[in-house]
Amino acid sequence: MRFIFPTIAVFFLTPLAALAGGEAEAGLPLPAAPLWSGLPITNSMLMVWLAVGLITLFCRAATKQMALVPAGFQNFAEWVVESLYDFLSSILGSYMVKKTFWFFGSIFLFILVSNLLGLIPGVGTIGRYNEHGHIIGFLRGGNADLNMTLAMALIFAVMWFYWALTENGVKGFLAHIFAPKGDFHGLMLMFMVPIFLAVGVLEIISIAIRPVALTFRLFGNIYGGEQTMEKLMELVPKSLAFLPALPFYFMELLVGFVQALVFMLLTAVFLRLICEHAGDEHH
Amino acid sequence: MTSLLALVTESSQNPVAELCGKFGVNWPFFIASCLNFVLVIWVLKKYAFGPIQQMLEQRRERIAEGENKLKLIEKQLAESEQTTTAAIAKASDEAVRMINEAKLGAAAFSEQKAQEAIAQAQQILVKAEAAAKADRERLSVELKREFGRLVAATTAQATGKILTDDDQRRINETALAKVEA
Lengths: 283, 181
Hints:
The complex is a heterodimer of chains A (about 280) and B (about 180). Chain A is mainly α. Chain A is about 70% helix and about 0% strand.
């Protein structure tokens, strides 16, 4: 019940804020802005490095002096890793999770940390003015850059193919996509083969669309959140700019977590679908 | 909103390139993002998931090992209790057997000593009887001799006659026959 109000508010206020802001160019620009000309370093990339640095520091602090009886950071890190591992194990199965946890765990933690860092006050609001008179922040949400979300989605797509082929073999992989599912014989089988071939083509289109969907879903949610808050801040005098955005910070905290979870869940489910029987012989 | 609509309706030779341009997707930024993501994965795998999973696995193994040891200890304890009970029962049986043997030995010894005592008593009795018999015979001989001497002396004084050896022997035999009768 407590999430209904912010959701409805976002639904109605976002177009209102967009209208108030006018052209999209006047708000948060779609592409991340390069910080120095000639170098492929954007404000989003800087945020990603901050996230990497923060994760590294946390990991070092948590694993520097590991003890059999955990305490402090180690305890928290173990709780996070073990919870994630158990959760992914329930989706992927104990065999596949052993092979792939490093990837899915990294995806979740990285997206979560990047999203939460993007909510720190000053991100997107401390920067320089561009030629349109709009502030280009020195920092911008790591996942508010399509390059980053595309990179993650495409790396997943490559890994998905690798795992699908190594677990099923080329023949198994193709059979998984095109072969009739079910126990068909004779005339029924001949009738089903063309149907499943057509289904296989659809499946290939679906597989091809997945990275695009993953890319734009994450980018859209994070960019949309930042854009919404920016537009809301423009609705009131600058001295009160924090006020309309304040409730949305709480929702963005939730969105940051949910989007990390959704990205990880979807990628894990996609892998599970293609490696459904992987590891059966190992049990 | 208008720019997105414009993007959709705008005719273009290469819509993908235009979309990429609109969203700022280009090779240098994309490759840099890929490297960043790979770096994140490497850092997490090396410094977080690796050591933590190793520690969790180590702990899991230690718990399993502890459980196994506990089961082994319980088994050994049960075996030890069984062995102790068996040993106590065996010792008890042995003790009973030894007590019985000691009782039997003591009874035999006691019987042997009693028999020895009886034998010794009998020997003492026989010796005493033999000694008594010898004393009686000796006393009898002495008595006879003294009685004969007294009878001979008395007869000689009474009769005033010197008795011969035959007289003395005949008087002695007659007197002794009367005394013994």
